[in-house]
Design goal:
Blueprint lengths: L11 H8 L13 H4 L1 H12 L4 E5 L8 E7 L2 E7 L5 E5 L13 E3 L3 E2 L6 E2 L5 E3 L18 E7 L2 E5 L7 H4 L1 H7 L8 E10 L3 H9 L4 H4 L23 E7 L23 E7 L3 E5 L3 E9 L5 E9 L1 H4 L4 H30 L14 H21 L1
Antiparallel strand pairs: 1-10, 2-3, 2-5, 3-4, 4-9, 6-7, 7-8, 9-10, 11-16, 12-13, 13-14, 14-15, 15-16
Helix pairs in contact: 3-10
Keywords: 2Fe-2S, Iron, Iron-sulfur, Metal-binding, Oxidoreductase
InterPro entries: Rieske_2Fe-2S, Rieske_2Fe-2S_sf, Ring_hydroxy_dOase_asu_C_dom, Rng_hydr_dOase-A
Protein name: Rieske 2Fe-2S domain-containing protein
Length: 387
Amino acid sequence: MNVHDPKLSLSPADELAANVSVPFEAARAMPKSVYTTQDFLDQELEHIFAKEWLCAGRADALSEPGSYLTMEIAGEPVIVLRDRDGELRAMSNVCRHRMSTMLQGRGTVRAIVCPYHAWTYNLDGSLRGAPAMGANSSFCRSEIALPQIRCEEWLGWIMVTLDPDAPSPAERLKDVESLVGYLGMENYVETFREEHVWDTNWKVLAENFMESYHLPVCHSGTIGGSADDLMEMTLPEGTEAFNYHFILRNDSVPLALAHPNNTTLVGDQRRTTWLLSIYPALFISLTNGYFWYLSLHPDGPGKVKILYGGGMSPDYAGDPEARKHFDAVKALLDDVNEEDRGCTEKVYKGLSGRLGDPGPLSHLERPNFEFAQYVSRQIEAGRKQDA
């Protein structure tokens, strides 16, 4: 059956299900409709982003009581903060009075104050005060609090979900720790965090991260020549929760290698870069010297909100030349990011045209096919629940 025949008039979800039903050796890129239609994005928001664990950044970014950040999950405004007891919390960012959003961006507060009528909440979400409410006989301050949202720290990452029944990240992602636990990712230090919006679909950027096939061309000006024998790379099978591959680096990017004073790492461990794609939207590049990550959220079919951050391993962060190392890594990563932006925005422009058609995948794009299978699985499960 030719799943690309428009005469079949399949829905985007049905097109995708047919697309991923073949063996990997016969796989093609995902259908255009799953990138460009609002209907499919609405299903992703409901059945993926409102159900799965999403990353709000690194836990060390919220080190002090009252330090907070804000995010939006499938249209739901969320606050993540460090409470007075030092625990991470997530809660609704919507006042329980007239439903204004409250905190914006990042910062540090002693209390959460609504900018509309100054209703004030403690850091645990309980209502502290509400001006001019004494004449309302139905008002009871002790009964009003911001709804709590599940929030857990996993290997140094802040993970948040709207689903009260989702398995914990530690359980769901235990195989990630088995792969990279020797690096102590939880001890890496974040040195920058930025937010961007690109003109592409979130899945285009996700897929771009998952494969190294594009490195020699898209990144010819930066890291394109840093991997040994890229075309001979083998791509391990992933799991239902993530996919991954790794690159053995040469010395063209020295900070990707183990610190000269590190005597723990041996052999290829000293030059391995891990590329971890945590479904649905956390993408981590982990080297011996530094890490960087993307946490994605759709902003319509043709735009993606990007949390972009990174930093250093403890060995390099504690080095006397740490500032020099950081500056070098940040400059490199910014250039890499700009190259990726150009490539992924071109892909979305092509997807939006009428004459393009998804082509066959290389053996270097196994993670892309597994990601497509994941997206299809989640959408199909959601549709069955809705039926």
